Amino acid sequence: MQTDDMTQETSNTGMLLIFRLDGEAFAISVTWVHEILDPQRATPVPNAGPFAPGLINVRGAVVPVIDIRHRLGLAPGASEDDGRMIVFEHPIECTPQKLAFCADSVEQVIEYDRSSMEQVPQLGAAWPQAYLRGAIRDNGELVILLETETTFAPAADRSVAA
Amino acid sequence: MIEQATEAFVLEARELLAELEDSFLELEDDVTSARIDEIFRALHTVKGSGSMFGYTALSRFTHHFENAYDLVRDGALQVERDLIDLSLAARDLMVSFLDLGGDGPEAEALLVSPEVSAIVERLSNLTGTSEESIEAPGKVEADAGETAAPAPTGVQTFLIRFTPAQDALRNGMRPDLLMRELADLGKIQVSLDVSAVPRLTELDPTEAVLGWIVELETAEGREAVEDVFIFADDADLSITEMTPEISVEETLATEPPATDSAEPAVAQVPAAAAPAPSQAAAQPKPEPKAKLPTAAKSESIRVTSSRLDDMMDALGELVIAQARLEAVSEEISDPTLETVVEDVQRLVMGLRDATLSIRMLPIESVFGKFRRVVRDLSADLGKDIRLITEGGETEIDKNVIDRISEPLVHMIRNSVDHGLETAEDRQAQGKTPQGSLWLSACQEGGEILVSIEDNGKGLDAEAIRARAIERELIDPEAELSEQDLHHLIFEPGFSTAKVVSSVSGRGVGMDAVKTTIDALGGSIHVLSRAGQGTRITLRLPVTMAIIDGLRVRLGESVYVIPLSAVEECVEMDEAESKRDSGRSLLQIRDEMVPYLELDALFGQTAKPDAGRRVVVVRVDGMRAGLVVDDILGQSQTVIKGLSAYHKDIPGLGGATILGDGRVALIIDVATLIRWAETRRDQGPRKAA
Amino acid sequence: MTKTILAIDDSKAVRDMVAFTLEPQGFRVVSAENGADGLQKLRSERPALVITDLNMPVMNGIDFISNARRDAAGTGVPIVMLTTESSPEMKAKGKAAGATGWINKPFDTDKLIAVTRKLLG
Fold this sequence. Notes:
The complex is a heterotrimer. Chain A is mostly beta strands. Helices cover 5% and strands 45% of the residues of chain A.
C-alpha cells in the first residue's frame, strides 16, 4: 500500500508545516506531525551512522532522532540548543514509527492547493532530488515539499563494520 | 461495532483452524465420534459465521469441506489417510482465505484457483455431490425479515383466518404482535373466533384457543401477508384474496362464528389468554443465584495481543515513573515519603507480575504445529518418525513463543532430515525401524528449557571438523573437544553453504537459530552421541519485556547490561591486564579473562578514567569482561525495541528510559562479544 | 423497561454480533456459550427473547429448546433458532421442540433486528 501522506483522498488541498533549515523553507504534511518540542539532548547510539545518530524520550516512547541536515547534504547545524524538534509519525514496513528531527525554526501551518505544486527548479536544487516532492509558493517564497517516504527511509549508509 | 464482531470472528476462526489441524492429526491415531463432532462443529461455525462477517468465499469453500465431515459423522464416509491428507490441505486453504482478510477480488480469485478447484473436486468426489449443487451454498431460502419486494399490485383485500396451534403461546407466539404487523400493512378489521374457548374452570391460560378472522386492505401484496405468519407455519391459516364485488359483510356473514361484539375484545382477550412473557416469567419466585455446576466452563476472555502490548507499554511507563519517584524520594530523603514509595514499589511489582502472567501461554500452542511439520517432512523423505511432546503445558511469554517458533521448526527439520535415519538404515544398526523425536519443555527457575531430541545417528564430530576447516572457521591445527566441535554447527557460515538437502537447506542455518535465541537472552546447548542421537536444549527467559538490569556509565552515556548475564563486577586493574594475540586479557583472581573496552567498541572518545570497572559477563559458558567507567546500580528495566534505524547494530538489544527521563541503551552481551571477535579477527588494531 | 435478549452460540463472533446489533436498539443482551449455559441464564436473566444456535457442544440447541419449554422461565418466551442447516428436518425438529421462529445463517443485522421486532414488538 502506498503511504501517501500528502493526500487526503477527498480534498484537493492539504495542510503543510513549514520549517527552516539554513534559511530555506521546507515543508511536510501536518497530517502525521505529533508535536513540536524544545530541542532535547539525544542519547547517542553507538555505531549508528550519521543519519539516525540518537534517541530521545517523547512521553515514554523511545524515538529515533533523524539528522535531516545530513540527509539533505547541509552542513551540520550550529547549535542543538536553538531550533525546534518536530516529532511525527512515519510508517516503516507498514508500522507507524515515531521520528524526530531538528529544524532551525518552525514557521507556520499553511493550506495549499495540490494543483499548485511545481517542479523544484533545477537551478536552485542543491538537495538530492530523491528527497523532494515538489515546490509551492507561499507569499512569493519558494517552499520545498519533502518526500517523506524517501527522506526518512532507514539509511543504507550506516557505517557499521559488521 | 460490527468490526469488533468481525475481529472476534477472525480470532475465533484462527483458533478453530489451529485446533482443526491438531484434530486431523489426532484422527490418524484415533477416530472417535467426539473428535469427528468437534471437527464438524468447527467447520460448521467457520462456514456459518464466515459469510456473516464478510468471508463468503471462505464460507463457500468450507461448505464442501463440511459436507465431507457430515458424511463422516453419519458413518457414510470412512476416515482414511487420504481423507486426512485432503483435510489438512483443505484446512491450509481455509487459512489462506482467512489471510486474505475477507471478500474481495483476491478471495474470489482464490476460490476459482486450480488449487481450490482441485480440493473441491476431491471433496465432491468423496461426498458424491456434483459441483453444481454445492456451488451456491450461500443462497438461503426466503425467510423472516427478508421481505421480498412486493410486486406493485395495487390495493388488494385479503381475508385471513388464523388459528394458532394449541401450544403456540407456550412457544412464544404473540398473536397480538401478528395483528399489529398486519395493521402495519394496511387497514384491518379483526374479529375473533371464540368457538373453541372452554368453560372458565377448564381454561388453561397457556393454551391457544382463539381464532382470528382478519380483513386486510393492503397494497403490499400477498407475500408480505404470508411473511407475517412466517413462524406460524403450524397454525391453521388461510389467506384468500377477496374480489372487490363481494362485500365484507356478506363474507363475514357466511363465516359461522364471526360476531361484531367480539371486536372490542381483541385488545384484552389474547393478553388474558396468554400471559405476557414478562408476567409469566415473573411468577415463580426468584431463586437465589445458585451456582449450578456448569460443565467445565473456562473462565477465559479473549483479548487481541496488541491490547496486551498496550498494557505492557503502560506498565512499562509505570515502572519508569516509579523509578523516577524513587530517585526523587532519595534526594528528598523524607521517611514518610520513603514508606509510600516502598508501598508503590511493592504494588507495581505485583501489577507487573500479574500483567506478565496474562501474557503467558502454554508452549503447546507452538508444539502443536510441529506435528504437522514432522508428518509432512517424514512423508517427503520416506522416513517413519514419531513425534513425542512433553510439558506442553509449560507457560512462556507470548513474545518469546512467537520468536522461537521458526528456530524450532528449523531444528526439527534438521533432526528429521539429517539426524534420523530411514527405517532400513535403522534396522541395519539394530535400532527400532521407527525413529523418535522428543520435544519437551519445562520451567527451571526463571528460565524455560526447551529440548529437541532424536534417537538418530548423532552429530559426526569429524565431519564437522572437516567442514569447519574447509570453511575456515577453525584452524586445521586447532584442538577442540567433541563438545566444542558440536557447537560449531551454530557458527555463521557453517551451514549456509550446504546444498545437499532441499529440506533443511532452506534459507537459514543454525547460526540464525542461535542469533534468535541470543536476541531473546537465551542460550543453546548441544549434546550428541554418535549412533545414539542428538539433544539440543534451549534455555529461554520466561519473559522478556522487563528485565533486571545493571546500569553502567560510559563517558556521559548510561548503558544497561542485563543482570542475568552478569557474573561479578571487579576493579579494572590496569597492571594485571595484558595483550595476547590481539586479545586483551585480565587476571581476575587466578583466571585470565578476555575483556572488551566498551568505549572503543562504541566509538566513544576514550577518557581513561582512573578506577574503571569491569563487569564480568558469561555468555555461552564463556566469561568475558566489559570495561566501563562506572557502575551506577541495579534497576528494573523496561525493554523497548529498537526501530528499523537501529535494530541491526550489533551489541545493542534495545533501549529503555531511565528514572531521570533519559534514554539508555541496553547491551546485548552475546552479539556484542561475537561482533567484537569478528572485529578482532579482521583488524586486531582496531579492537585494542 | 429494557428487555433482555439471551444469545446462545458457541461462537463468540456470533454472540458479539447479536449484542452489537441489538444493544443499540435498546435491548440488553446477555450471552451463553451452549445450551446448558443458556438454560441457567434463562432462569437467572429472565430474557424476553432467546436467540439460539443449534449446533453446540455440551447441550445443543434442540435440547435447549425442549428443556426451556418445560421450564417455567421458558414458557411463552419466544425462542429463535439460528441455523445454517438448510435441511427442513432441522427446522422441523426445532419447531417440534418449541421454537418460535428461526433465522437462517448467514444473516445480516437488518434481518436480526427485523425478527427481534417481529417477536418482541
